[in-house]
Amino acid sequence: MFQRRISIVLTGLLALAISRCVEAASDVPLEPFLNEHCLACHSGDGAEADLDLKSLAWDLTHQQSFDRWTSVLDRVAAGEMPPSSETQPQPGERVEFVKRLKTSLVDVNRRMQREEGRTTIRRLNRSEYEHTIQDLLAITTPLQHLLPDETPLYGFDTVSDGLRFSALHIDKLLAAADVALDEAIRLHKRPDPINQRFPYLEQSGIVKNLQEKKSIVRPLDDAVVLFADASYMVKLNGVHVAEPGLYRLRARGWAFQSDRPVVLRLNIGNYQSGSVRTAGFFDMLPNEPTEVEVIARVEPNEYFFPSPDDLQFDTKGQTVWNHDGNTYSGNGLALQWIEVEGPLVSTWPPESVRRVFGDTPIVEMKQPRWANGKRIAYEVTPTQPKRELEKVIRGFAKRAFRRPLVDGEVDRYIALGVAELDASRTFDQATRVALRAILTSPQFLIHSETPGRLDQFSLASRLSYFLTHSTPDERLLRLASEGKLSEPATLRSETERLLDDPRSDRFVESFVDQWLDLRRIDATSPDAKLYPEFDQLLRLSMVDETHAFFRELIDRNLSTANLIDSEFAMLNRRLAEHYGIEGVEGQNVRRVTLPSDSPRGGVLTQASVLKVTANGTVTSPVTRGSFVLTRLLNSPPPPPPPGVGSIEPDTRGATTVREQLAKHRSDTACASCHSTIDPPGFALESFDVIGGWRAAYRSADQGQPVKETFRGRKIWEYKHGPVVDSSGQWHDGTKFDDVIQFKQQLLGQRDKVARSIVSNLIVYATGQRIELADRDVVQQIIDRTAKDDHGVRSIIHEIVASELFQSK
Amino acid sequence: MAFAVSFTRSSPASSFNPNSRFVQIIKRRSLDEMIDRGASRRQFLRAAGIGICLPILDRFTCSARGDDNTPQRKRIVTICTTLGLHGPDFFPQAVGAGYEPSPYLRVLGERLSDVTVFSGLSHPEQSGSDGHSSERTWLTSAAHPGLGGFRNTLSFDQLAAERLGYVTRFPSLVIGTSHSSQSYTRSGVMIPAVARPSELFAQLFLDGTAEQVASEVRRLGEGRSILDSVSEEAKRIARTSGRRDRQRLAEYFESVREMERRLHAAEAWSQRPKPHVDAEPPAEIQNEADLIGRTELMFELIPLALQTDSSRVIAMTMQGRNDVPPVPGVSIDHHNLSHHGQDEAKIAQLKLIEMAQMRALAKLLAALHDRTENGARLLDHTAVLFGSNLGNANSHDWRNLPILLAGGGFKHGEHRAFDAENNTPLANLFVTLLQSQGHTVDAFGSSTSALSL
Question: ipTM above 0.85?
Answer without folding.
Answer: yes
